[in-house]
Design a protein that fits this description.
By secondary structure, the protein is mainly alpha-helical. The chain contains ten helices and three strands; from the N terminus they run ααααααααββαβα.
Amino acid sequence: MFTKLLAYEIRSRFRADARSFGAFIVTIAVASGIVAAGLPGVSGSTAVLAYALCALTPVACAIAAMADYWKTLYGQRGYFTMSLPISGKVIFWAKNTRIMIECLLALALAVGGIIAVASASAWSDGISLAEYTAGPRSLVAGIPTSTVVLMIAVQVILSMSWIVQACAAMTIGSEGRFNHLGFGAPIIGFVLVYVIDQMLSMVATFFIPLSVTTDGHFSTEIMWTSVRATMGTDGQPSVIGIGSYILVPLFALILGAWASRSIEKHTSLR
């Protein structure tokens, strides 16, 4: 049933996604052409706007997808969703998987858009793309490629965890016992989840034995030990804790399990 519901979810959003992603591709193509033309006073500002569009596209996609999550579960379409002979677990994770797919596609398009605009800028300046991106690449020049790739991957996983948490907050906040609060209940849920996330991140960063050294290698040294060693000196900690990359996704899984049960046992449509 999960596969069937996921396929339905993808089909239901296909036209809207195709329009949005298509408009993005056309906009970036036009912007790249303007940037490559090297028009004084125009190409530079167009490049800035194009980079901003690329940065905001995955965020806008996530917001639109989560709005659809709310509408199809707790809006008028919620009655149809809840009439399906499917468990709450399948409903929750199928919808979240579809949102993740949309966001990953948006992220891929955003990265492609950045490369396209950067290539156009390099062309306009008469230099290679490697020369144009030398500055940003120098920031990670001393870090092993495997570390960079892994850190990007876990950051994507962390972002997906935030999506699960947001959907779970909407679902738990829509239980019958919170109906008198209206949409205020999910808002309170968002705030509580954010606060807990920050607390977990702080504890995990300082006290879980998983970190990255200043030269980009993984370590099991606890960051708090390094911080204590540098207290009262001008030195900096020798490692940066990354335990939050483990604890926050685990918290998301717990909220996902709670939300799955909530859909099945405590849903109350307004």
